[in-house]
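pls design
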């Protein structure tokens, strides 16, 4: 790899502007060379904030990838905008950082994965919490345990601020936006993969946004998982900084492990109701640094997930969407992957 790693950003909204670009700007030998966004105002804002030359600000991702001599592409656009930019970049030998969720449909996810594998470029998906030491510790603890059940619960009192996130058909809604975290971190700490997916939702008449997602997974090794997302549209009385139940609960033969009960930036885990430890840590920075170091050295050993591994998270969620569309009919993952 050349002394300077040249990066292009496909999508310059909040996650790029407030997180990834500032982190990369602090890594020696990394240059954010070009940016792209379909929204003129967002593109202009990012360009001026990070002093990107006007001739390197693009509204078309394919044009940016084809014109610029990039080493890395950060794909930070919504899932529904993922079409041919990542595949074209991979075919040119550009390494891929794909923010989650990676795709809104099975065909797109599989096409991008195929291009990445064929080109043998380095890739990762933005499941940042895999780099949290607390999750690594939990993964070690659960390594020899028989997993019975995983439970992820997230009640929330309000809707997304962005209109496209309030449209389930367009974006996948909360299921894809946060469900991918729920499933991915569970896969990581339990070393389990999904064999069957099922989902029920409640969407009031005339609404584009589901107010509840009830997702069931059967793991290939036999355990089960349930994800419950509820938006109860409350005004005022709900404290957003406190949780009545843990975010994650893992039941294994002989005990229970709970993760993230207090809310806020401090993460904790408990064994059978007893606090083990708390942690304040920035996984965003760790993930970006690990990926860029892999690009610099060619050593992929520290990457916690590549794009292919990420299919083990996104495809079960897309299968769950298919289940809900068919009245909650269970979907076999092997069959779903084959189309």
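designed seq:
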């Amino acid at each position: 790899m050349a002394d300077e790693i040249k990066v292009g950003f496909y999508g310059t909204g909040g996650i790029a502007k407030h997180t990834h670009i500032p982190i990369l700007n602090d890594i020696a030998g990394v240059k954010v060379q070009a940016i792209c966004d379909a929204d003129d105002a967002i593109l202009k804002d990012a360009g001026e904030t990070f002093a990107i030359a006007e001739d390197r600000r693009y509204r078309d991702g394919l044009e940016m990838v084809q014109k610029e001599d990039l080493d890395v592409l950060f794909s930070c656009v919504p899932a529904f905008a993922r079409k041919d930019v990542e595949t074209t970049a991979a075919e040119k030998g550009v390494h891929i950082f794909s923010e989650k969720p990676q795709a809104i449909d099975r065909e797109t996810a599989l096409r991008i994965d195929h291009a990445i594998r064929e080109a043998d470029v380095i890739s990762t998906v933005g499941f940042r919490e895999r780099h949290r030491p607390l999750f690594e510790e939990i993964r070690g603890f659960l390594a020899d345990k028989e997993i019975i059940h995983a439970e992820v619960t997230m009640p929330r009192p309000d809707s997304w601020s962005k209109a496209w996130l309030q449209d389930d058909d367009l974006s996948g809604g909360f299921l894809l936006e946060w469900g991918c975290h729920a499933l991915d971190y569970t896969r990581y700490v339990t070393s389990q993969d999904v064999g069957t997916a099922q989902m029920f939702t409640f969407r009031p008449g005339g609404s584009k946004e589901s107010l509840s997602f009830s997702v069931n997974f059967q793991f290939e090794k036999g355990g089960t998982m349930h994800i419950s997302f509820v938006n109860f549209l409350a005004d005022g009385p709900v404290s957003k900084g406190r949780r009545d139940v843990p975010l994650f609960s893992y039941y294994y033969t002989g005990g229970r492990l709970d993760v993230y009960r207090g809310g806020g930036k401090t993460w904790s885990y408990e064994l059978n109701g007893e606090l083990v430890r708390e942690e304040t840590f920035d996984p965003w920075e760790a993930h970006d640094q690990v990926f860029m170091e892999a690009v610099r050295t060619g050593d992929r050993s520290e990457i916690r997930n590549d794009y292919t591994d990420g299919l083990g998270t996104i495809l079960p969620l897309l299968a769950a969407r298919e289940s809900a569309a068919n009245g909650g009919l269970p979907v076999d993952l092997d069959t779903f992957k084959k189309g």
